[in-house]
Amino acid sequence: MLSVRRFSMCVLRSLRLHLKKIAVILLAVQLLFITVYVQNRHLSITDGNWKSFTTPFFQSPTDTTKNDTYATFDLRSKDSVTRLYDKMNFDTSGEWIDTYTLKNNLLTMKMGSDKGQVLDSVDELRYYDNDPRLVWSVVLDHLLASDSNDYAFSWYDWANFDSLNKLIALKDTNISCQFLCEGAFDKNVMQRVENEVQEPLFVTNRNKYDEPLWYNRARKGFDSNSVQQIVNDHCKSNDAYSNGTPFELPFVISEIYEKLRPEVYDLHARNHLLYSNTTPLSLTVLNSDKDAYRIDLKKTDSSKSNIVQSNLLQDYMQRHRKEMVNGDLIFNHTSIFEKFLRHKSTKKRKLDIAGLDKTIFAKEYLDLSPSDFCFDVKAKIAELETRLRSESLSLHDTCYLQSLQTSIRTAPALQKKYFAEASDVTDATADGHHRDKRFFSIGHNLLNDPQEFEARLSSLIRTFQKFTKANGLISWLSHGTLYGYLYDGLKFPWDVDHDLQMPIKHLHYLSQYFNQSLILEDPREGNGRYLLDVGSSITVRVHGNGENNIDARFIDIDSGIYIDITGLSVSSDAAKQYMSKFVEEEESSEKTFPALIDDYDYDENDNFDEVDGREDLAKYTINELKEWVDSHPDDFTNAESSQVTKTYKKELHISGGDSPEKGLSPKQRYLVNEKYNLYNCRNQHFSSLKILSPLRNTMFNGVSAFVPNRPITSLNNEYKVPPKYGFLTFQGRVYLPEFRYWFSFADMKKFGNLQLREPKITRLESPLNDLKFSDIKLLLTNIVQCDFHSIFASLFNSFDSTIYRLKELEIQYDLRLSEEEKSHLLGMLRHGMSKNIKSPEKDPIIYIYERKLWEHVEKLLNASVLYNIASKVENDKIKAFVELSQKVFERNLESFQLLDRDNNDAVIDLNSKGLNLFGDNKKTSNDIFGSDQKY
């Protein structure tokens, strides 16, 4: 073992490379000094006195190891576990609690008969966890060292394969295709697997398998013949496994079968993803919300090789061998990422797309024009084909051109559904109809852990918004996402996805430059990995057969949760009745919309190419297509004929419906919509230029976002927005403006002790619609005492985001302020606070990592000690929350004292600006959502 002096010198030499990360350095030094000989990993606690204890992450407390390893978490003092609990629940930054090292994290086996053993070499690895710190370090260092433009991508390195690793780790237990092709796991096989890997195969609803009635019902319907048929159709043997190749499974799921329980489908779909022939076209790496960089991916036979199989990891270790201490090595991914950003080769990767303006988020308003909602497909195809003849196109341009060429030759009524959801998963709680079938996974405990679920949804929208800002792409919040924003700057807690709209021109930018790119969040801020997937028929802008209402999705590759993205454009779909009033308003005419249509002089020479360059059946109207299909029945399948008939009936409904454009031909509808700036998505949600433009710059989920100019009007076209801002109930939820939060009413009854069933907590005496300031502390204390820890964590972490929205509302709807004053104050608010708003939720990967570490701690320490630790942390947070809330009520919050950039950086106190929603106005009717306000 190295002497302390010599050891310190080695550490210091290694750390000179990372001077910009002082906090990380201090932690790394502390961890490197803790080099121990761990023999017996029991911890005894008597009367609060703790004995020294150090263990590698996830090593069983009864394991013994004769190897020196760097500890990733030190339990020698209460401070260590206190720090973990605090960080796990109340720190939403992208920082990790420990340091990733070669020995402890990568070479120490976490499962199976080898659990706790430390391998001598990475060449002995049969599986590993794809920790972002490892993968980022190795891949970026490879790109810098080789000055290469690309690298061979492997799903194994970028998607989560924790569940599949348990099968890969098996040595003695044989599993076959049948194990992943039955409705529920064979319990006997599952128990053998769990006995060998020494941990549950899955966590979510694992106890159900111990209930005979449930188990028999779950297995019902999968007799030997049906299972064998599923195996024959969906699974095949893997020759690589037979040859002893590491990282392999004995079988390959060749095609996904959906009608399985979530835990079975998880492994089934993960196997298919691992062996999928489909990989992204590129990686798009974000530098926060400032810039984006493109890393092209090789398309070779070895494209599925992970960083061990491709020797990237071995090469990394060779380049950094001088940094090794006692045979160990730190993977400092953020330091390498910052080096990557500064490197000359990175400048070549920077994306600056002609036609996009990265400064749009610096403005308070963004004016849209009619040209944003039209796109000349014919001209774009001609441009790309000309370039193809004279030069080589990039892979993205080539795929985009092929997509356009295919799309224009497909009749809307004959389009096949592009996006596929895991809607046949046999458990309604899995929300399979809101998950992409390729990436569906239950994660660590996603179905039963609301914190993980909310963390994923938050990371999803935050990364997308940073992605659009970094590239100058225009999109805005829509549908339920816009509705949720209205109250507290967050989504509704019952929403399981996000909805965004964008003009058709920017949908094409998205398709051309980012379709099939894996978008990677700045690793200093989080670990989001999302596939941008654009449908194959974006040139079609009508409803058609209704199978492709969504244009694009931003998909979390670790869960299948997504953002729905729809493009708005001029189309020949019939405008909805609710659009009449907006046309009449904008025309400043006494004539009704139908009268304006009657007066419209249709020019038969007007060019109508809704889908430019249409060929074959795509050139027909639905009436003509129906005639053709009826006269050529042998040329179409029954399904195709049915789709055409379905679409034809919809057209008949339009001609006799309540649309102001009923009776018009598709061409005439297109020209009317174009004339009056009426735009729609393929799901027939209509809007107008005046409703949308200018877009308003705001903050959503703590990051920059756009909302329509008239959000109330936009929402009232779909929903009925209650005019009052204040106490509100909806479908079992109650909105308390004092907390800026939606609570389950059933939960509120418990921690309010409204039914006097909780003898240990104080009853809330105030009515919910008229809370006193003193009630805040009472309710927070009760929330924690009733074990609603995730609710309190969400309340605390979302304070910045919701208090920003509160002040925004107070300014926007204050009738005493002029439009100029509102604009000025809102600009101050956004520029002064936007960079200081913490994420309302944790990064999901860091959350799961810390949650697993806490579960390990729970096995080591007695419950009373952990209770005291949690109580101490939460009581401190309650005190902080109450103090901040008091400053909000008293209108002296420091966060609202901001510099006025237009007045020589004078300090302006926004506390006193705008409505006082918690003062005298609280007792009056705050009908601020009764109509849109100009600002």
Write a concise synopsis of the structure shown.
With 935 residues, the protein is an alpha+beta fold. Helix content is 40%, strand content 11%.
Q: How would you portray this structure in words?
A:
It is found in: Membrane. One of its GO terms (cellular component) is membrane. Keywords: Membrane, Transmembrane, Transmembrane helix. It is a single-pass membrane protein. This is YJR061W-like protein. Strand 26 (897-900) and strand 27 (906-909) form a beta hairpin. The chain has 935 residues and is an alpha+beta fold. It is built from 34 helices and 27 strands. Helix 23 runs antiparallel to helix 24. The strands form 9 sheets. The chain has a 9-stranded mixed β-sheet, sandwiched between helices. It has a 3-stranded antiparallel β-sheet with strand order 12-21-22. Among the domains are: 156-274, no CATH class; 352-430 and 457-697, no CATH class; 710-841 and 861-930, no CATH class. The relative contact order is 0.09.
